[in-house]
Design a protein that fits this description.
The chain is an alpha/beta fold and 527 residues long. The protein folds into 4 domains: 132 residues, Response regulator (Rossmann fold, 3-Layer(aba) Sandwich), CATH 3.40.50.2300; 166 residues, Reverse transcriptase/Diguanylate cyclase domain (Alpha-Beta Plaits, 2-Layer Sandwich); 96 residues; 107 residues, Homeodomain-like (Arc Repressor Mutant, subunit A). A 5-stranded parallel sheet has the order 2-1-3-4-5, with helices on both faces. The chain has a 5-stranded mixed sheet with strand order 7-8-6-9-10, sandwiched between helices. Helix 19 packs across helix 20.
């Protein structure tokens, strides 16, 4: 059974660190949400089932202790643990009064955090068994066997008695075996459009087909430790036959379900005592779907035996992507992202890919902010998405998401800059209208708006498809036309008012603008 965990910390970096520090599925725990304030946490507690709350103590406005008090009112059976950098007995004493399960000080030691979470999980397991009188003894034994096997395979308990595993029929000493881990692909993304009951029904239909197939083909002992993951201790098979049977399972699910599965398969284990090592190999093979895609059988023995990279020099590629965003060149952007991930396929682990992606996005966001483009204000959220590790399962998924996200950023920035330029152009036009009789020139307008004359002239031409000088002449002529309607104002006076010293030059430009001389214009428009 998987328990739901809510993580709370006002520091996003600490929150992400905590989420990544623990292999939650290995503990049968699932982080269903994170919150950076007590108010957000309370909203999540009201809307979702939460079994465990882990919170920083000292947070602004609502402290972790205040949050715990209110959380207990919403969910009385909630298990609460605190993580804090404040080594103060007063905090610990208050936590004890709130029946907090534990109190861990920063910097947190991995083993200390792991032991705390294991203790909380074990207490929840005991409570569930004792609280439900309908759980049969047989079911309790099954839960015990699965938990014991999982702890042994995952290395959290190396003292499991293999004799006991043999007694329960899980392993057969002296025989060969394999380990396989089955993962249901894209559970979150594919089922996001369904309601809770529909999601459960679709997922259960898929896992039921997997279990029926395992039993029908007598593949071996299996257990669930996550809604998406099934481990099988496979019986001794000819390698070709085993690959065929597992590949047929992949195809069966693909054909008969909305979902697909990927299987990671270890090599053949000569001795069951070595199964934990082979289980690790099966998980590593499964992780390789990040690089080759989903709905496949991935054999550990077929993984490339080369020196994988752990990082890529992204400076040049980062600048190329940044320039394509600023230029709103979507074709260049797509090619640049493709080039960026060309070397990422040689990374060794999913975690390396995720860390690389988040580091890249963080640096790109910093470049945009340095350029004066506040992505947070444009989207009312951060460009970086800390949930990426949970939502995407392959490099192609990440690339597609990144191109979509950055294209959206580019379009938004382009629209914003166009609106900004439009406002500046309108302000310039108003300034010219107000000061046309002051004999203004491009340099004066550029100085007023804080631009160089060349840049302002270029921006004006790009926005209006008209040279600034021609616009200036047009405004002068329009103003002159208004003055000519007053017969008391002499033409030479009008010439001077609109900034012309040479009346012959004024007459020539007026005729070019209106198709007639100032005198003819006055006669034609005489009231």
């Amino acid at each position: 059974m998987s328990y739901k965990v809510l993580l709370v910390d006002d520091e996003l970096v600490d929150l992400e660190w905590l989420k990544r520090r623990v292999d939650w599925p290995e503990l049968n725990l699932e982080v269903i949400a994170t919150a950076n304030s007590g108010f957000s946490a309370l909203r999540i507690l009201k809307e979702q089932q939460v079994d465990i709350l882990i919170s920083d103590i000292k947070m602004p406005i609502m402290s972790g202790l205040e949050l715990a008090q209110k959380a207990k009112e919403i969910r009385p059976n909630l298990k609460i643990a605190f993580i804090s950098g404040h080594e103060d007995f007063a905090y610990a004493r208050q936590a004890i009064r709130l029946n907090a399960f534990g109190y861990v000080l920063k910097p947190v030691k991995d083993q200390e955090l792991l032991e705390l979470l294991q203790s909380i999980r074990d207490v929840l397991n005991n409570e569930n068994v004792n609280a439900n009188p309908n759980i049969k003894f047989k079911d309790t034994i099954t839960l015990f066997k699965d938990e014991m096997l999982h702890q042994w395979l995952s290395g959290t308990n190396k003292n499991v008695d293999c004799e006991l595993l043999e007694y329960y029929g899980i392993i057969v000493k002296g025989s060969k075996c394999n380990a396989a881990v089955i993962e249901v692909d894209d559970v979150k993304s594919k089922l996001s459009l369904y309601n809770d009951n529909e999601r459960i029904e679709i997922l259960h239909k898929c896992t039921d087909m997997i279990v029926d197939y395992i039993n029908y083909e007598h593949l071996g002992y299996y257990y669930f430790y996550d809604e998406r993951l099934i481990t099988i201790i496979l019986k001794e098979f000819d390698p070709a036959v085993l690959n065929y049977l597992l590949m047929r399972l992949v195809e069966k699910i693909k054909k008969n379900s909305t979902l697909t599965i990927t299987i990671g398969l270890s090599g053949e284990c000569e001795s069951v005592e070595d199964l934990p090592k082979y289980y690790k190999n099966a998980k590593e093979a499964l992780e390789y779907k990040m690089f080759i895609g989903k709905s496949k059988l991935v054999c550990y023995e077929n993984l490339p035996k080369v020196q994988f990279k752990s990082q890529v020099d992204i400076e040049f590629k980062l600048k190329t992507i940044f320039s394509s965003i600023i230029e709103n060149n979507l074709l260049k952007l797509n090619d640049s992202v493709e080039d960026l991930f060309h070397d990422v396929k040689d990374f060794r682990t999913k975690k390396a890919v995720y860390n690389f992606t988040i580091n890249f996005i963080s640096r790109l966001e910093a470049m945009l902010q340095k350029n004066g483009d506040d992505v947070h204000n444009i989207f009312e959220q951060q460009l970086i998405n800390f949930e990426i590790a949970e939502n995407f399962e392959t490099i192609e998924d990440i690339k597609d998401w990144l191109v979509m996200k950055l294209s959206n950023v580019s379009k938004k920035l382009s629209e914003r800059n166009q609106n900004k330029d439009k406002k500046i152009i309108n302000d310039m036009k108003k300034y010219v209208e107000d000061h046309i009789e002051d004999k203004i020139h491009l340099k004066e307008v550029a100085d007023y708006f804080g631009f160089s004359p060349n840049y302002l002239g270029h921006m004006f031409k790009e926005a209006t498809n008209e040279k600034f000088g021609d616009y200036l002449i047009g405004v002068s002529m329009e103003r002159a036309g208004k003055y000519l309607l007053d017969p008391l104002i002499k033409i030479y006076e009008i010439c001077d008012r609109v900034g012309y010293r040479n009346i012959l030059y004024f007459n020539r430009q007026f005729k070019e603008h209106y198709g007639m001389t100032p005198t003819d214009y006055r006669k034609r428009n005489r009231v």
